Amino acid sequence: MSAAEAGIFVVGASLAGLRGAEALRRQGYAGPLTLVGDEPHLPYDRPPLSKHVLSGELDADGTALPHLVALDAQWRLGSKAVGLDRVAKRLRLASGDELAYDRLLIATGAQARPWPATDGPLPSGIHTLRGRDDAAALRSALAVGPNRVLIIGGGLIGCEAASSCRDLGLPVTVADPNPTPLARVLGSSIGAVITERMQAAGVDFRAGTQVEGFEADAAGRVCKARFAKGGEIETNLVIVALGATRDTAWLEAAGLMADETGLACDGACRALDARGRPAPGIYAAGDVARTPIPLYGGRSLAFEHWGNATAQAGHAARNMLAAEDDQREYHHLPSFWSSQFGVNIKCVGLAEGADTVAVVQGSRAAHRFLAVYGREGRTIAAVSFDEARWLPAYAERIEAGAAFPPILGATDQSIKDTGPPGFPEPRSR
Ligand SMILES: Cc1cc2nc3c(=O)[nH]c(=O)nc-3n(C[C@H](O)[C@H](O)[C@H](O)COP(=O)(O)OP(=O)(O)OC[C@H]3O[C@@H](n4cnc5c(N)ncnc54)[C@H](O)[C@@H]3O)c2cc1C
User: Fold this and answer.
1) Reductase C-terminal domain: from which residue to which, for each copy (predicted)?
2) Residue 120 in domain
């Protein structure tokens, strides 16, 4: 079969892969379409995994993503792509099969960052959470009633998992090297509100605490964790929530600009080769893609946000079908939501790097507020805790590059609480 007859291949059959394939069909692509995914499941939604699935309100297999368009596609599920030959236009699968493609959409997302390699095997009872099978395994382990759950990392997934564990009435400790949870995402000034919510919910939050290693019982199951600064804690269930690494290992020999921070793309979502030139016919979208974002000075950024995966997949699909001289730049205002400890958090823009944060509505003390982040006199992000009414207005101001703080004089807004946001130093590794 010639590459042209082979049609478009989408590698990574999850949110970005599915929405990208649907966008291709919606925009008139009628040729052959194949989705290759290493998981055995049809695309499913990840946000409920750390929330409703862990707390037992939803089964892991109840998270299937709706199909919005009749795809008429071939599905190669349970098939890991292990190599890409761009010259021959062939994709190699772990089974040994080689498949000819014409154009490629890479949507292989990210994986949970594992616990760093140790000399011996890790004890059992240590989990990560990225996929549906991880969530099902963790849910079963929680249902047994561990004596204490230790969560390593107070980022979004660590906090949501802690909240779900408390909903189940389980004793929970969260250990994080930063002064508060969500310090890297929102800064410790806002993160302090999450510390209060955690403590009110009965979570033992250990700030400035790094876990160094584990001890196992006679059956090889984790029974203790040791802290780097001394001391230990008894636990028989650990959730390692150390963030994610992009799934680009399979592209190692493909001559593309790819590493664990993502597959570098140009503004049109075209993958870049090792010399920084767009690779013909290869596009990327979702968590795996690192693209220059005009709103943030053209910085090449990869997001781990649901909204970006859907929007970027649609954009990449559009450009895949467009002529060479009609490639449009991807403009994106990052946003995410989270629900934890009874609070709905919504964030627009990138707060990281802000020099000031101002509460413009509600109050941190009431745990219900809208806060706006500024950097060098410009509004760059806003976050709401159960107070999202004005968020779209701030999103517009962020996109417009408005001065900080914007929207002064609105009837129900005033700045009562302003100061440094308290972001930790960038990670050394
Ligand atoms: C537990 C959890 C909770 C979340 N909650 C929120 C939330 O509340 N709000 C929010 O905005 N975002 C949330 N997110 C983030 C959001 O789910 C992701 O941004 C989104 O799933 C990204 O979609 P994707 O398709 O780019 O990548 P992924 O969903 O990671 O999918 C990539 C797919 O490609 C497959 N794959 C990888 N390598 C290969 C290969 N070599 N060959 C074939 N297939 C491969 C993977 O197995 C996977 O199925 C959450 C994520 C997780 C894990």
Assistant:
1) 336-406
2) no
Residue 108 CA to residue 10 CA, distance in Å, equals 9
Helix (H, G, I), strand (E, B) or coil at 277: coil
Asked whether residue 210 is assigned to any structural domain, the reply reads yes
Atom from ligand 1 closest to the CA of residue 112: 53
Q: Are residue 272 and residue 377 in the same domain, yes or no?
A: no
Please give the residue range of the domain that contains residue 162: 126-242
Residue 15 CA to ligand 1 center (angstroms) comes to: 7
| Nearest protein Cα to ligand 1, atom 28 | 109
Tokens of 375: 């950097």
Query: Distance from the CA of 411 to the center of ligand 1, in angstroms?
Result: 41
Going residue by residue through the chain, which has 429 residues, state the pLDDT in tens, using 9 for 90 and above.
665 688 999 999 999 999 999 999 999 999 999 999 999 999 999 999 999 999 999 999 999 999 999 999 999 999 999 999 999 999 999 999 999 999 999 999 999 999 998 778 899 999 999 999 999 999 999 999 999 999 999 999 999 999 999 999 999 999 999 999 999 999 999 999 999 999 999 999 999 999 999 999 999 999 999 999 999 999 999 999 999 999 999 999 999 999 999 999 999 999 999 999 999 999 999 999 999 998 888 999 999 999 999 999 999 999 999 999 999 999 999 999 999 999 999 999 999 989 999 999 999 999 999 999 999 999 999 999 999 999 999 999 999 999 997 766 665 667 778 899 999 987 654
Residue 295's CATH number = 3.50.50.60
SS3 of the chain: helix, strand, coil, percent, to 5: 25, 30, 45
Domain count, the chain: 3
Cis peptide before 421 (omega within 30 of 0): no
Q: List all residues whose CB is within 6 A of at least one atom of ligand 1.
A: 11-17, 36-39, 46-47, 49-50, 80-81, 107-110, 129-130, 157, 247, 250, 286-287, 304-307, 309, 336-338
* Domain closes at, from 326, 359, 392: 326
Residue whose CA is at the smallest distance from ligand 1 atom 17: 46
Q: What are phi and psi of 124, to 5 degrees?
A: -75, 165
